[in-house]
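Duplicate of #3305? Posting structure anyway:
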């Protein structure tokens, strides 16, 4: 039973990771490590830098986020990420779908 639950939670996390990244960028532009720290605070998400950076690259190639480099007085240049117009639209659609899915899933519990 524990193996089933562990596998299920892994699959749920993988499915939600893109939405979490997009939501984290919806409020403000963030640099990579700041994004890592923010997402690591989400209980159960289990995010690592090795997972985040390839995902950011994929989202950028899909046109959902933009990236820019800015010099930093505290070390190397930082890459800042932000949502594009398409990214905002997709994030809104994903959140609506997820909200509906949660609502319908909970209604199954109640037998409605």
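Output from current build:
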């Amino acid at each position: 039973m524990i193996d089933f639950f562990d596998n299920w939670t892994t699959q749920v996390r993988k499915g939600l990771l893109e939405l979490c990244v997009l939501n984290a960028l919806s409020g403000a532009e963030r640099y990579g490590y700041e994004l890592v720290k923010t997402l690591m605070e989400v209980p159960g998400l289990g995010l690592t830098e090795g997972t985040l950076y390839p995902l950011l690259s994929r989202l950028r190639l899909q046109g959902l986020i933009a990236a820019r480099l800015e010099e930093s007085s505290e070390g190397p240049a930082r890459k800042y990420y932000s949502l594009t117009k398409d990214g905002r639209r997709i994030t809104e659609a994903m959140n609506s779908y997820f909200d509906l899915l949660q609502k319908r899933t909970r209604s199954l519990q109640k037998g409605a």
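Confirmed duplicate; merging threads. The mean pLDDT is 92. The two ends are 27 Å apart (CA to CA).
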